[in-house]
């Protein structure tokens, strides 16, 4: 059984889609052991509790990035999300992880980003796509490396940008695809079908 720790900062709709996939039996052999937020009182914590998953807050105030990473890995380990065996999912987590943390969970941290990387990394990716005049955007699930939004890509889904789109409508169209893509990618990981070869992720049949 692979134990998953999900890191969140806000709404928790991707967390919800992953929990739903596990509950529906679409992802087998994994369970969400803990959900950790860097912000107190966010909706994602309520989502976790509604699914009977332990939900904790670890605030970063007063901590260096390094110290935050240490506390985080301690908390994850305490919930069975072991280095070399567990899986850490970032689902709207708004914090950059320390290089040491990323090394400890090397190849076992996954993120979802609302653009087709390497286009529009960082904050407000949907707004960036609109501002640039892109005709197509989408979402990307990728392994996390120390550089922001730069890790090997597991899966992507393209989404059209419409003339009449604003940030809200484009974000909603992309989010719908996120909710399919992220559980699919997690399933591949849990099935042991992902192999990282340099920048490429090879998916075995
Ligand atoms: C999603 O758009 C995700 O791609 C980005 O942050 C947003 C999180 O939404 N990283 P939610 O908290 O999962 O609803």
Structural class: alpha/beta
Order of strands in the sheet with the most strands? Answer: 3-2-1-4-5-6-7
The global form is: globular
Q: Helix segment count?
A: 6
Low-confidence stretches: none
Helix content percent band: 25-40%
Number of domains: 2
Radius of gyration: 16 Å
What is the CATH T-level topology of the largest domain?
Rossmann fold
Corresponding CATH superfamily of the largest domain: Formyl transferase, N-terminal domain
Please identify the top-level CATH class of the largest domain. Alpha Beta
Strand content bin = 25-35%
First-to-last CA distance: 21 Å
Task: Give the SSE order as H and E letters.
Answer: EHEHEHEHEHEEHEE
List keywords for this structure.
single chain; 205 residues; alpha/beta; Rossmann fold; 2 domains; seven-stranded mixed β-sheet; two-stranded antiparallel ribbon; 6 helices; 9 strands; binds 5-O-phosphono-beta-D-ribofuranosylamine
């Amino acid at each position: 059984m692979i134990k998953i720790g999900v890191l969140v900062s806000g709404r928790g709709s991707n967390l919800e889609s992953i929990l739903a996939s596990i509950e529906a039996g679409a992802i087998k052999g994994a369970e969400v052991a803990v959900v950790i937020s860097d912000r107190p009182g966010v909706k994602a914590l309520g989502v976790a509790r509604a699914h009977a998953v332990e939900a904790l807050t670890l605030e970063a105030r007063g901590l260096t990035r390094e110290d935050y990473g240490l506390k985080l890995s301690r908390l994850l380990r305490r919930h069975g999300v072991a280095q070399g065996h567990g899986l850490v999912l970032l689902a709207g987590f708004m914090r950059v992880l320390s290089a040491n943390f990323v090394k400890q969970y090397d190849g076992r941290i996954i993120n979802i980003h609302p653009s087709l990387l390497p286009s529009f990394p960082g904050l407000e990716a949907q707004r960036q796509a609109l501002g640039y005049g892109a005709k197509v955007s989408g979402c990307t699930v990728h392994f996390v490396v120390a550089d922001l939004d730069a890790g090997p890509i597991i899966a992507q889904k393209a989404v059209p940008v419409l003339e009449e789109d604003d940030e809200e409508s484009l974000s909603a169209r992309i989010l719908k695809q996120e909710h399919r893509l992220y559980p699919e990618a997690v399933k591949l990981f849990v099935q042991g079908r992902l192999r990282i070869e340099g920048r490429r992720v090879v998916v075995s049949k």
